[in-house]
Design goal:
- Helices cover 70% and strands 0% of the residues.
Length: 509
């Protein structure tokens, strides 16, 4: 947030502070485009369920003649003449909505036309909200960000009053200390923070770049971080309250009922709503409306990030042309994920094209900001911009702690790598997607080095590590004052000779 607001640059152009690493921003933009394809696809599923929620009898609450299941609307799923205990909500999701394949041996199939229409509507809404630029999307965000809280608190009241809800909530808040030794837990925790706060994906830099130069970014960062944590906990209580209710009704353990990924939203929740004795349609409508609003807000942020990266590079291009191009490309990609084999592809793309490369790129981003540019330089920028002196806690975190943890988790994840259980070609495709994203760093580093005017390779490389001549605040007057501050810093820094002293200086003063 600091570098975005300070420079008024997007997630690619912000690397004017170190042109050698511009590929990190390019890689993050590619990652965001990868995400927007399946985010919109999940939004289309929510739209399908939202429309279905208006039917007098919820379509997933009862079994059909060709399903070997039990009605989700029943208080208990124990039926003696049934060979399965799967609820009708699960069959509705896999057989009717997604028509899901059991594997990818026969390809991904052709998507359901109803989902195609929902995907088209999703992209039309996203386009309308973003096409006029950040001002229009910013106004829409007030509603898209605030109204879901109204629904969340309504669902919270209902969730905690369900039978067995506190069994689920107790499971949520009861620590399992042995899990702290599992690197997979730390990997998932870091990934969750990245996606929840959109850290390391470029969106934070883009949105903060539209702030006024003197905006109190420290206050904003604290509010956003704490509010995000509160929202996550609130959502967790609602989810596990509902899961606890399903476990109570079906006489199962919470762990047996709990599902991850899309199945939590489109199987567990619909199943629980179908079991509600009063107003199941109302709660279904409210839940999927909330999901749609949150999905629109997330997709707007992603599209805006991609749009800003392109506009920074090609400022003469019309916004509406870029937005429509993103929408068309995103719609075409989304068709893959709503196909019968789409969720298997989504799992591959999410790991190889988003989660894993994001971890690698954020390590490089942290290294670039905190060492190549320098913690001390960032703190100088903060003091110049806000008049705030950065404390030792933040300096140690930025300079050592955060980077060390990220590197450790990344290395452990590499050592524990296991190929996805899909046909070999899909894993190959995944690694190609990872390569295209991460190797942007190498390609742009070569390009940035080659463009330097010096004759020797060493001189070119050193110059590519330095901020560009126009790096700094957007205002010319403020930029001149900043250049004076930088010149004074260079004079003072030139007196520090030893490497040890430079390392200490980077994070201590």
């Amino acid at each position: 947030m600091v570098v975005g607001q300070f420079s008024s640059r997007g997630c690619v152009k912000v690397f004017d502070l170190c042109p050698l690493m511009r590929g990190v921003g390019v890689g993050q933009t590619i990652t965001m485009f990868t995400i927007v394809g399946y985010y919109a696809a999940l939004l289309s599923l929510a739209m399908r369920y939202f429309v279905d929620s208006f039917q007098y009898t919820l379509p997933w609450s009862e079994c059909r003649s060709d399903w070997d299941c039990v009605d989700s609307s029943k208080a208990s799923i124990h039926i003696s003449n049934s060979t399965t205990t799967k609820p009708s909500a699960e069959f509705y999701f896999t057989k009717t909505v997604t028509e899901q394949f059991s594997d990818l041996e026969n390809g991904i199939g052709i998507p359901n036309y109803q989902l195609v229409l929902c995907l088209l509507v999703s992209w039309v809404l996203i386009t309308v909200l973003v096409i006029k630029g950040i001002k229009s999307s910013g106004k829409a965000s007030y509603f898209l960000a605030i109204f879901p809280y109204v629904i969340l608190f309504g669902l919270l009241v209902r969730a905690v009053t369900l039978d067995g809800a506190f069994d689920g909530i107790r499971y949520l808040i009861t620590p399992q200390w042995d899990k702290l030794l599992d690197t997979e837990v730390w990997y998932e925790a870091v990934s969750q923070c990245f996606f929840s706060l959109t850290v390391g994906l470029g969106a934070v830099i883009v949105y903060s770049s539209f702030n006024s130069f003197s905006n109190n970014i420290y206050r904003d960062a604290m509010i956003i971080s704490w509010l995000d944590t509160f929202t996550s906990m609130l959502s967790g209580v609602i989810v596990f309250g509902v899961v606890g209710n399903v476990a109570y009704i079906t006489k199962k353990n919470v762990t047996d009922v709990m599902k991850g990924g899309p199945e939590l939203t489109f199987v567990v929740y619909p199943d629980a709503i179908a079991k509600m004795p009063t107003w199941p349609n109302f709660f279904a409508v409210m839940f999927f409306l909330m999901f749609i609003l949150l999905g629109l807000g997330s997709n707007m942020g992603i599209v805006t990030t991609i749009l800003t990266s392109i506009k920074d590079r090609y400022p003469g291009v019309k916004i509406w042309k870029v937005v429509i191009a993103i929408a068309v490309a995103g719609f075409c990609c989304g068709l893959v994920y709503i196909s019968p084999g789409g969720f298997y592809v989504l799992d591959v793309v999410d790991y190889y094209g988003v989660t894993f490369p994001t971890l690698v790129l954020v390590v490089l981003e942290a290294f670039t900001f905190c060492w190549l540019y320098g913690v001390n330089r960032i703190c100088m920028d903060i003091k110049f911009m806000l008049g705030i002196k950065t404390g030792i806690f933040w300096r140690i975190c930025w300079g050592f702690l955060t980077l060390s943890i990220l590197i450790t988790i990344t290395c452990m994840q590499v050592f524990k790598y296991k190929a996805k259980k899909v046909p070999h070609g899909y894993n190959v495709f995944g690694w190609c997607l990872f390569g295209v994203t991460v190797l942007q760093v190498v390609g742009w580093a070569i390009y940035a080095t080659a463009r330097q005017p010096q004759s020797s390779f060493g001189s070119k490389l050193c110059n590519a590590l330095k901020p560009t001549d126009d790096w700094g605040p957007e205002s010319e007057q403020v930029k001149r004052n900043y250049n004076v501050t930088v010149a004074k810093r260079k004079t003072k820094r030139s007196r520090i000779k030893t490497l040890r002293a430079r390392v200490f200086k980077n994070v201590s003063k």
